[in-house]
Each structure stands twice: as structure tokens, then as C-alpha cells.
Design goal:
Length: about 140
Amino acid sequence: MEIKTLIQTAIDALPNSYVPYSQFHVAAALLCKDGTVYTGNNIENASYTPTVCAERCAFFKAVGDGKREFEAIVICGGLHGVITDYCPPCGVCRQVMREFCNPETFKIILAVDKDHYDVYILKELLPQGFGPLNLA
Ligand code: THU
């Protein structure tokens, strides 16, 4: 799948965020190795700590559906759903990616629009990460 298509999928999902407390919308589009795509949004909570980020929402939807192999994720976000800058994943979401993805190949794409995006591999954003093999 083309990166631009994946970016558009994330941007289209941005209104689905449930953000009554921060008004900061985040959306993710997660591409599985079999070609399927799962979107995710941040879902906030009056008790704050149960809030889930868009990236984890996308992963948990996919993993709950039986998916285990992932190619790339696009992330976008902004206050009131207006994207003005890149929206990097929080540390907890990077750790969740580490559970399911190869740090050398999994792509994290931070997008402002279809023509403005940065591509990283997981290892760049989570160096020396603790993963499943550390428990083997
Ligand atoms: N947020 C995400 O959805 N993903 C991130 O990686 C960073 C932060 C959300 C959580 C919260 O709803 C809002 O952004 C402000 O922190």
C-alpha cells in the first residue's frame, strides 16, 4: 500500500477521537503485513489515567482481531483536530509497538499531510528497547 493512502486513512479517522478533556485529536492507521489496515483514535476518560492513545487503540483492535505482523503505522494529530505539526508516539505506545514489531523494519510515519511526513524505524524512536526476546 502507498504511504500517501495510509496517511489519508489516518487523516480521515481524526474526527473519531473522543477528547472532551484535551481537545487534542490523534489518529493512527496501522498497516498489517497481510495488507489490512486498522485505524485507532485516542479515547479519553473523566478519570484521566484510563485514557488510551490512538496508536495503542489501533494495535489492540488489530491484535484482538488476530493480527500479529505489522508493516507500518501513520500517526497524525492536532488540537481541535487541526494538524499543524508532527505528532510523535508516546513512550508507552513505542513499547507496545516493540511487543509486536521488528525494531529494524517497522516504519513509524509522522504525517502533517500527504506531502509532508517523516519516516522512522522503531529502533530509531526506541533504542535499546526491552522486548519479548529479553524474557526468552
Ligand atoms: N495521545 C495519543 O493519542 N498518542 C500519543 O502518542 C500521545 C498522546 C493523546 C492522549 C491524549 O488523549 C491526548 O493525546 C493528549 O495527551
